[in-house]
Design brief:
alpha+beta, eight-stranded mixed beta sheet, 253 residues, 8 strands, disordered N terminus, single chain, 7 helices
Length: 253
């Protein structure tokens, strides 16, 4: 309700002068100044402080281009302490790197909708993908003017895969997902919608967004509560890095 009142107030402030001049907001074509930066994120992923990219490539899921990135932590003691990585977690991450999936907005009228469904279907292609312990977590990250609050979905994803010798192996991940934009983030598209409406009325521009999925490998059918502080720390780094890159001067072609 409060969000609706805020957007209405902004709309009224924008309408008043335009009523006199006849220069209506909705008669102007909306812009997305961050298009090149979004494209750069899609093609190259992110450089995260404290992490080394092992592999990065783009792939298509349900007609949308995603960036797939594997990362391992830097091994200096200061970085490990800052990120809160325990020796046990470091051992797991060295054997199976962290995965970061990014689906940036691709054009001005591209809106978030079914990214989580698309990604879940993609994982299920590899058989027996199971999601449990799903709940919401909240964290804050540095924003352009103040802290950006993010509400993300956090769950355990796992699958049992049988090799040619008939032996089954269980792969388990702590997974965090949200839509990120410069002033915040949410797993729910309604959060982005109101932020987008505000920017349209204020600047005649669309609010850029990026769908984010973090997959942190853990022990088979492990407790994701033990990994939550690490997941939140990495998510904060991702949100801050995305904001910085989105608001940087447009990347060259």
């Amino acid at each position: 309700m409060l969000g609706a009142v805020v957007v209405l107030a902004i709309a009224c402030a924008a309408i008043a002068p335009n009523y006199v001049t006849g220069n209506w907001v909705w008669s102007q074509e909306m812009l997305l100044p961050e298009t090149r930066n979004l494209r750069a994120i899609q093609q190259a992923g992110l450089e995260l402080p404290g992490w080394i990219t092992v592999e990065q490539h783009t792939d298509k899921i349900s007609h949308q281009q995603w960036s797939f990135q594997s990362l391992t932590p830097t091994l200096d003691a200061d970085s490990l302490s800052t990120q809160g990585i325990s020796p046990e977690q470091l051992e797991v991450l060295q054997q199976a790197p962290l995965s970061l999936f990014l689906r940036p907005q691709s054009y001005v009228d591209d809106e978030p909708l079914v990214e989580w469904i698309d990604l879940n279907s993609f994982f299920n292609r590899f058989k027996n993908w199971t999601v449990d312990e799903l709940h919401t977590v909240q964290f804050s990250a540095s924003g352009p003017e103040q802290e950006a609050w993010v509400s993300a979905r956090y769950f355990r994803g796992w699958q049992r895969i049988q090799n040619e010798q008939g032996r089954r192996t269980t792969y388990t991940y702590a997974v965090m997902q949200w839509y990120a934009w410069p002033t915040g983030g949410s797993t729910d598209i309604a959060g982005w919608f109101w932020a987008d409406q505000e920017r349209q009325w204020r600047d005649r521009q669309r609010m850029p967004w990026v769908a984010v999925t973090l997959m942190i490998p853990i022990k088979p059918l492990g407790d994701i509560a033990l990994t939550q502080p690490l997941a939140e720390a990495i998510a904060q780094t991702v949100q801050t890095t995305l904001t910085t890159q989105l608001l940087a001067p447009p990347a060259s072609n």
